[in-house]
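Board notes, transcribed. Complex of a protein with iron/sulfur cluster.
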Amino acid sequence: MKECPRCLLRESAENDVYAGVMDRVERIPSGERSPEELYRNRLEACRSCVHLISGVCMKCGCYVEFRAAYRRLRCPDAKDRKW
Ligand code: SF4
């Protein structure tokens, strides 16, 4: 897989990796899930972040499309938290 700064997973990974992540997102209980607008806003913030490489946050190692889907989780960049 080619490294892609500022790409989300859906834009940079093999389809099966993205499908696996989205399958895990679908399994998050609805009460713990980020509402759609919050989720989209979080991912847009990640897309303009220098720490995003090929869908992975270099601050925490998470696929951002998974991390952003958990409402209680926050951007891990303590010095410049974007969400
Ligand atoms: S540091 Fe925050 S905004 Fe940047 S990629 Fe990670 S989760 Fe997204």
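The CA atoms of residues 75 and 82 lie 6 Å apart. The chain has one domain: 9-67.
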